[in-house]
Amino acid sequence: MNLLTQIRSLFEPALTALAPDQAKVPDLLAAIKPASNADHGDYQANCAMALAKALNRPKEAQQIAKEIIAALPANDVLEEPMVAGPGFINLRLKPDFLAKAIAAIATDPKLGVEPTKKPKTFVIDLSGPNVAKPLHVGHLRSTIIGDALVRILRFLGHTVIGDNHLGDWGLQFGILIHGYKNFRDEAAFKADPVRELARLYIHINKLFKKPDDDEEGATDDPLKRACQEETAKLHAGDPENLALWVQFMPACLEMLRPIYERLDVKIDHALGESFYNPMLPGVVEDMLAKKIAFESKGAVVIPNAKGIIPQTEEEQQKEEPPAILRKRDGAFTYTTTDLATIKHRIETWKPDALLYVVGAPQSLHFKTVFAQARRWGCEGAEFQHVQFGSMLGTDRKPFGARKGGTIELMSLLDDAAKLSLQKYEENSAARRAVGHKVFEPTDAEKQEIAEVVGAGAVKYADLSQNRTTDYVFDLDKMTATIGNTAAYMQYAHARCRSIFREGGVDETSVRTNPPALIISHAAERALVLQLLRFPEAVEAAAADYLPHLITSYLWDLAKSYSVFFENCPVLKAESPGLKDSRLLLVDLVSRVIKQALDLLGIRVVERM
Ligand code: ARG
Description:
The chain is of the alpha/beta class. The protein contains 24 helices and 13 strands. 54% of the residues lie in helices and 8% in strands.
């Protein structure tokens, strides 16, 4: 049950009856929001001012507010609304309503989140690393954000297909093939192909005139040209190079596997660029036959809406995107591959929406691709570039622009785990020193805490930013045990669980047969309201593909919980009824935290 939706639905008939222009009703409803200050109530309807204007009675907003209230249907959700200031309507939920709602979420495995009324099929393009080379941090963001969206949309009852559009057909294979033919250590390759291929890739890259420059395109570097020639031979179907590609692919995928495993990310499909290679000539022919694309000076191009035909790839970087499908030398482009991919996805999965979780620098590419796909007849589906900003170093420079270009993700996750464990142990030592009872984990438990908290820190830091902005990758801040971090939420969860252990209470009874809610303190009421707002957060995150709305929610929940914890003894509550009621809230806090973190792909441990 979404509280906000429920309150808006009470206002809808009233506003529909009063508004002179029905088209404005959604805007008026959107002005009903959670109260910014709890002293003013739980929610606030700020629609009277706009309605007064629309009715040409600009000075009578207070009176209009009263008319809105008078037009509300009888209900057992809201106390009598109060008008404040120039015409704000303050709303407070009835205690009985809160008690019933809490009992309802206690027995609901989905904690009040209802399946969507309009289930859709989504294809989500996520991760998309260029295999055969060290994973780039940009692909880390795509993997983390993409996986969270898969989980959130699925939780709401949508059908979601995750597809990893691997870059498995580009210059990096020319580099490997050239390296293998000229520089390989046969014994090393036999013993450990993954390691030897990684070594060869790094070795060749260092020998380039411009190290780490593996962009395609004209070059005066003979070594790079040699690698490009190997790539061209591969694309032309040269049997030797094709056989090497087939031989290298498993090793390349093996380099990625441990990263996905550690991040706890499973992607349904991995149809990379190579999969679409055989379809590319057909795409171009079809586009030519439908007179969408034209031949121009030996290339095949799609003019933009103004009829301008690009002559170079640079010209394609203009605002109104035209596209090159086949270059003069016969090579197909990234655009052609993406068009083939769209056709395949639409035919195979018949999606309502195709989401591309890819960095902001590719926004022009997707604008082009989506526009051309629509002209090609792929209408009806929603195309969405779910873009994200860059990850910056603590020096505020993009990771990708620094020398080295990529950082080894595995070692980054190792560092996160190590630092998380260190902070955990410092925290435990500090608490032990002031006489607290502290959990003493075994070595295996310590290992698990390090992994769960470390990977959680990296993910949470990424997901707690509005994805469209750049963010600073600061391992020290993201592993902090206090503040809006994974560790803080994981601790809060474990602390809730420990109350049950300490009290020797079994949680199944509060879940199957929830005790009556008693609200005896403002902090208790605030916590109840926060717990009931979980569905609002999940639905808002799904609506705009913004996972940070879930972390913001978690942060608010954690703050309410901490005030509650300070003020409301649980095991030592004044009466058995109050103790049971508080245990119910504590159990719900832990369940909501665990579920919300799970939607972000972050795990918890029972004890820490
Ligand atoms: N491999 C690409 C890159 O690293 C990302 C793929 C994104 N997905 C797509 N369908 N183009 O830039």
